[in-house]
């Protein structure tokens, strides 16, 4: 390893292996209760909860530690309405054939269509943007590396943090998502919309598609050498 400035690792906690397994199993059990929900309550969620979850996301590892992400947390009814209208315009053309028959067939078990009322009804939307240039300081203009991978990891952290805090979520990726750049007032020369996360409480009549409960077995998704 090349010479570099560093500090001692002082906050690592080593648990007995029995406790490690228990913690891993507890986290697995918690993760199994995470579901993508499309029926949200309008029950308010304090800003502090969303802010703390974004702080969790911002601890994710990233290429050269450039942290090439920006999170726009949206609670404004006016802004949410604009996002819903723009997203539904795109979704109409998607479901009217732009997606292709195979893609639409894959979505049928989930019951999705071009109507996205949750974009306006849920208390919070979080628009995630990736950044082409940046660095460890806000004013840096260096090239960012492994942007897609870094923002993907941070997004996973965010979803789990929201779930762990007691909220439900839905990932939304309309194509193209450039309208989010305009509505959120972001720099279109440097940032690209990555994903939209809907967050809040489930509606009383919320359901989970049976199709979404089918998860591949550990033997199908992993190998041990």
TrEMBL record:
<dbReference type="InterPro" id="IPR029479">
    <property type="entry name" value="Nitroreductase"/>
</dbReference>
<protein>
    <submittedName>
        <fullName>Nitroreductase family protein</fullName>
    </submittedName>
</protein>
<dbReference type="InterPro" id="IPR000415">
    <property type="entry name" value="Nitroreductase-like"/>
</dbReference>
<keyword id="KW-0288">FMN</keyword>
<dbReference type="InterPro" id="IPR050627">
    <property type="entry name" value="Nitroreductase/BluB"/>
</dbReference>
<keyword id="KW-0560">Oxidoreductase</keyword>
<dbReference type="Pfam" id="PF00881">
    <property type="entry name" value="Nitroreductase"/>
</dbReference>
<feature type="domain" description="Nitroreductase">
    <location>
        <begin position="32"/>
        <end position="201"/>
    </location>
</feature>
<keyword id="KW-0285">Flavoprotein</keyword>
